[in-house]
Amino acid sequence: MSENESRNVFVPNLFERAKEVTFDVLLGELGLLDQLQVVGDEIRGKCPLCGGDRSFSANPVKGVFNCFRCHKKKDVVDFVRFYRKVELKQAAEWLVSLLPQVLDTANEQPEGESTLSESALTPREVRLLQLMARACARYAGTLVSAIASEQLEAVAWRVVREEIEKEFPDTA
């Protein structure tokens, strides 16, 4: 498929779907987590766009980023646009390509049918798996920060537990 043909593919709700990719997943995919630190619900450190030390922060929960040096801010789509130097639509299409296949095919199925029923997973179990993936991405960032620490295992379990407790407070 040529480059022009790929641009003609219609993706329903392209920008909304692109914003489903969180910053922790995005930064992990781009290989940028090693230069950043996870601090609470934020990812902070050297700006991947301008290189400014301690000027960048991204909030995966809110889906926004900000650099106090280059004054660039907004959401994941704009971050990809700035970082990869592409048009907004191309950035959104690339982000959608990062979404799990289950999400891509779910919108194409007739109402009432779902991939969840085929896999025998409940929506709660699917959400829990998604949270575990996000916790693993956070853990990778924390791991880089705490590599020399003796508390490495405690940090890992704390991150996983926090992610689960946010979504499922009844498990606390």
Please, could you describe this protein's structure?
With 172 residues, the protein is an alpha+beta fold. The protein folds into two domains: 11-99, Zinc finger, CHC2-typedomain (DNA Primase, Chain A, Alpha-Beta Complex); 117-172. Helices cover 51% and strands 10% of the residues. It has helices spanning 3-7, 14-18, 23-29, 76-84, 88-98, 101-106, 115-119, 123-145, 152-167, and strands at 36-39, 42-45, 56-59, 64-67, 73-74. The chain has a five-stranded antiparallel beta sheet. A hairpin with a 2-residue loop joins strand 1 (36-39) and strand 2. The longest helix has 23 residues, at 123-145. Residues 1-6 and 102-117 have low confidence and may be disordered.
Q: What is this structure's SSE topology?
A:
Layout: H1 3-7, H2 14-18, H3 23-29, E1 36-39, E2 42-45, E3 56-59, E4 64-67, E5 73-74, H4 76-84, H5 88-98, H6 101-106, H7 115-119, H8 123-145, H9 152-167
Antiparallel strand pairs: 1-2, 2-3, 3-4, 4-5
| C-alpha termini separation | 49 Å
- Counting structural domains, the number is 2
> Averaged pLDDT, please?
76
CATH architecture of the largest domain: Alpha-Beta Complex
Shape call: globular
CATH superfamily of the largest domain: Zinc finger, CHC2-typedomain
Q: How many strands?
A: 5
Percent of residues in helical segments? 40-55%
Radius of gyration, CA atoms, in whole angstroms: 18 Å
